[in-house]
Amino acid sequence: MKTLIKGASVLLTDGSVKETDIAVDGEKIAKVGDAKDFVADTVVDGKGKFAVPGFVNAHTHASMTLLRSYADDMNLMDWLQNKIWPIEAKMKKDDIYWGAMLAAVEMIKTGTTTFADMYGDMEKVAEVAIDSGLRAVLSQGIIGVAPNGEEAAFEENKKLFADYHGAGDGRITVMFGPHAPYTCPPDFLRRVAEAAKERKAEVHIHLAETKGEVENCLKDYGKTPIALMEETGILDCGVLGAHCVHLTDDDIALMKKYEMRVAHNPGSNMKLASGIAPVPKLLKAGVCTALGTDGTSSNNNLDMLEEIRLAALLHKVDTLDPLAVPAMEAVRMGTEYGAKAVGLKNLGTIETGKLADIVLFDMGGAAWTPKFDLVSLLVYAASSADVDTVMVAGKLLMEKKRLLTLDEERVLFEANRCAERISAK
Ligand SMILES: [Zn+2]
């Protein structure tokens, strides 16, 4: 399958924009530049469109989209113990599937092409990735809440790796997902690290999200969460650490040493009042820092353009420095750094040989006028509702705002049905 995106304004790797063509052959970009002679099966008119790399949501819990607006503005433990955990206990495989399908609709429509997900029954989320055409980095959330919960989930994660790593024509990769240091004790983390190393798999884990977590970790183990990851061998695997809000300088040095990557979730951190991650410091230290939405119970959407804007704004006001995270750096966090953070080296920029995950924004509206600086318009003025066309691995998932792989009406119907069932008294 060959597709030609003709005459779009293309965001190039150096941050400049050029009006040109993108030739796509199979799952990869064959050429960025004049491609008059390229014989394509499909031609997409790029005129008036801004072509950017697809967004990478580096941390989310897609199936939780069923719980959007179910419980908000509560203290974390009250929210978890009295609202979220009881309703999650009622979720069956069918709910996991339709919750993730609802997420898939929203992700495609807002320009996300890859999502890094952690939850239970992840084979259902793998099915969603296969059915929707999205790229996914999946890990089973391993939480030791129920007796033997850890062991069962650990086995499920191993099975998920065996069954789905490389599935969906290579669009799915599988990581190990020990939930957090406060839900997985050190000896257990050591075993997860061993299992991951044996398989050359990477690890996705929540780290240093709240002040209380860091204080308890210091009290229980005499170490910060990041230092505990070094001691347990987790840092020897490639690690995608979600949140990383409360860090010491020694933590940042360790993260750099082990090439740990961070999924920064500004929307979730603000809504849950977790704090402000030291993102400018991390970027300056050379720690790969990407962006995620976290689950929609703590965001409450999956809109990556919003996270890009929040990242650009939050760190300016935090540091009182308008240069703290410039617009292009925020876009890189949502694309190029995101790809690196989730372990996909051949993704995240529009250049020859890279995987063809491309989003076209329609620049026809008032918010895109006048056009002095397209990157600035994208970050500070545009809306994800301007996403017009979405391609993953060379395949169109949405064209002219019409979903091509999913039946939106059916997905919304099924999601409402599932939400009603699990919330019934
Ligand atoms: Zn999370």
Bound molecules: zinc ion
CATH superfamily of the largest domain: Metal-dependent hydrolases
Beta-strand content estimate? 15-25%
CATH classification class of the largest domain? Alpha Beta
Low-confidence sequence ranges: none
Percent helix range: 25-40%
Could you say which structural class the secondary elements and strand pairing correspond to? alpha/beta
| Number of domain modules | 2
Mean pLDDT: 96
- List how many beta strands DSSP finds: 17
Question: Biggest sheet, open or closed, and with what strands and sense?
Answer: 9 strands, mixed
Brief synopsis:
With 425 residues, the chain is an alpha/beta fold.
Would you write up a description of this structure?
The chain is α/β, with parallel strands linked by helices and 425 residues long. It folds into 2 domains: 2-53 and 347-403, Roll (Urease, subunit C, domain 1), CATH 2.30.40.10; 55-341, TIM Barrel (Alpha-Beta Barrel), CATH 3.20.20. It contains 15 helices and 17 strands. The protein has helices at 76-88, 93-109, 122-132, 149-164, 186-199, 211-221, 225-231, 249-257, 266-271, 279-285, 304-319, 327-334, 336-341, 374-380, 408-423; strands at residues 2-11, 17-25, 28-32, 42-45, 49-53, 55-60, 112-119, 135-142, 172-178, 203-207, 239-243, 261-264, 289-291, 358-362, 387-392, 395-399, 402-403. The strands form 3 sheets. Strands 1, 2, 3, 4, 5, 14, 15, 16 and 17 form a 9-stranded mixed sheet that branches. A 4-stranded parallel sheet has the order 6-7-8-9. Strand 2 and strand 3 (28-32) form a beta hairpin. Helix 2 packs parallel to helix 3 (122-132). The mean pLDDT is 96. The chain binds zinc ion. Residues 59, 61, 206, 242, 294-295 line the site of zinc ion.
